[in-house]
Specification:
It is a single chain. By secondary structure, this protein is an alpha/beta fold. It has two domains: about 140 residues, Enolase-like, domain 1 (2-Layer Sandwich); about 260 residues, Alpha-Beta Barrel (TIM Barrel), CATH 3.20.20. The chain has 15 helices and 13 strands. It has a seven-stranded parallel sheet with strand order 5-6-7-8-9-10-11. It has a three-stranded antiparallel sheet with strand order 1-2-3.
């Protein structure tokens, strides 16, 4: 199949309240819809979820929120132009064919040496569209059918339950956190690394984190709830991270911490072996090479994000981690229901992390989008039994494994 035409559209979805992480706040998220048309008459639309703050805070802070989103959307448009004339039946090859020039264009349009993640996030909708074309070409009946042969040993599990992990942002009030525990959620993703006075002072950040964690633990002591701490690269060195973790130990909460995600900056060379918890890489594991390096530094888990790093690249990351005996799990990007299905399909097949029996899937869109019920109603499988958590978990039966792929591929 050769790509002969493209199209692009997008929607702006408002947050129910400012969504705080990585030292900043989002008021809306832009959803892109990239169309690929082929010489055989095929046509597929891939969805994207833009997160400029997560991908490159320098871009986010250098302009308005809408300005950063406009730049990312412009990169998607340029990448679609580059895709015309390329072969579409090999999604990884298509991605590699358009990535270098799209990255160069992103630097030109922003005036910033943008991260690779920024560009991959812009190209994720195109990558999904090419996977849908491939799935239809091979008459795929299940998500398993499109998994590359080399990756299948790493994506061969079949969970019956996926723990749905909601996010606890900087501004979430304690009564709302308690509601999550009352609803049966067993793991909460807690954002740390706030910039309380917006002056970049990391000592103030540590103090704020410690107070916040004390308040949360005091409220949750009576519940059987585990903590997944997400620093989003906000810590600059082990000494500060150890201070925060020492405080967590003092308040009796260290044994509840199942994960610490991305404590240090993307280019940090610090080992995490001295940190007394399982440490996961996210933003710093963008390529297979990054992933291997992080594992050498002591990272014991890898957070993958098909919607930010593309599905093609995610398969390669999972393969690299599996070869080195390290597990993967999916972290959210505040995705909408269609993208959540891609995440659920992949999460269902990833082996559980050390110390866990169920799978793990962060999803916070339902918490943060003002119009989530309407968005879910528009998704073809939005009312499917596997699409709604029960007692804090997605229950996955044979219907899920046989039907969810059809919802993704439009067959």
């Amino acid at each position: 199949m050769r790509i002969t035409g493209t199209d692009l559209n997008f929607e702006r979805e408002p947050m129910a309240a400012p969504w705080g992480f990585k030292g900043g706040y989002l008021s809306e998220i832009w959803h892109s819809h990239a169309t690929l048309k082929t010489d055989s008459g095929g046509e597929a639309v891939g969805d994207g979820c833009q997160s400029v703050l997560w991908c490159d805070p320098r871009v986010f802070t250098s302009t308005s929120e809408a300005g950063g989103n406009t730049w990312m959307l412009a990169v998607t448009q340029r990448a679609l132009q580059l895709a015309v004339g390329k072969e579409a039946d090999n999604p990884p090859a298509l991605l590699q064919a358009i990535l270098p020039e799209a990255w160069e264009y992103a630097q030109q349009v922003t005036g910033i040496d943008v991260t690779l993640t920024f560009v991959l996030n812009a190209l994720a909708s195109i990558d999904f569209a090419s996977w849908i074309l491939k799935a239809r070409q091979m008459s795929a009946a299940s998500f398993e059918d499109i998994i590359p042969e080399s990756v299948r040993p790493a994506v061969s599990h079949r969970h019956k339950r996926l723990l749905s992990v909601p996010a606890v942002g900087y501004a979430m009030k304690i009564p709302d956190v308690i509601k999550l525990a009352d609803a049966g959620y067993k793991v909460l993703k807690i954002k740390i690394g706030s910039d309380p006075e917006h002056d970049g002072d990391r000592d103030k950040m540590v103090d704020w984190d410690c107070r916040r964690l004390s308040d949360l633990h005091d409220a949750l002591k009576a519940y059987d709830v585990k903590y997944y701490l997400d620093a989003n690269s906000r810590y600059d060195k082990s000494e500060r991270m150890l201070r925060t973790l020492a405080h967590v130990q003092r308040i009796g909460a260290l044994d509840r911490v199942v994960l610490l995600e991305e404590p240090f900056e993307e280019k940090s060379q610090e080992s995490v072996r001295e940190l007394p918890v399982l440490v996961a890489a996210d933003e710093s594991a963008i390529t297979p090479e990054d992933t291997a390096r992080r594992i050498e530094q002591g990272y014991g888990a890898i957070a993958v994000k098909p919607t930010a790093k593309t599905l093609s690249n995610t398969f390669d990351i999972i393969h690299t981690a599996h070869e080195r005996g390290v597990g993967c799990f999916i972290a959210d990007l505040t995705v909408h229901p269609t993208l959540l299905e891609w995440h659920r399909a992949l999460s269902a097949r990833l082996a559980p992390l050390p110390g866990m029996t169920d799978g793990l899937l962060e999803t916070n869109g339902w918490q943060n989008y003002r119009n989530w019920p309407d968005m879910n109603a528009r998704y073809p499988a939005g009312s499917a039994p596997w699409a709604q958590p029960r007692d804090g978990a997605f229950v996955l039966d044979e219907e899920f494994y046989s039907e969810s792929g059809k919802a993704l591929f439009g067959q």
